[in-house]
User: What shape does this take?
Amino acid sequence: MKRVIRFTANWCAPCKTYEPIFNEVVNTSSNTVPLVVDVDKNPTLAKKYNVKSVPATALEVNGEFRGLRAGVMTREELKTFIDS
Assistant: This one.
C-alpha cells in the first residue's frame, strides 16, 4: 500500500493551486491512501519528514519512506513520483 502525504498550510497560495492536482491523481491511483498534513497544526510530522517548505509531498510504500518532493507538481510528475 502507498501512502501519499501532502504537506500544506492555510496561508500558502501554491498549496491551494496544488490541492486539486493532488486530489485528482491520488484518488485515481490504485492502492494509494492520501494524507493531508497542515504544517502549522502538526509541526512534529513535518519535522519527521524534513519538510522545509510547502507544498511538499512524501511517499511511503508499505510503511517505508520512499521520498519527498517540494513544490507544486504537475499531474504527470505526481503520477511518476507515486509510481516510482
Q: What stands out?
A: The beta strands are 2-8, 32-38, 56-61, 64-70. Residues 13-28 form the longest helix (16 residues).
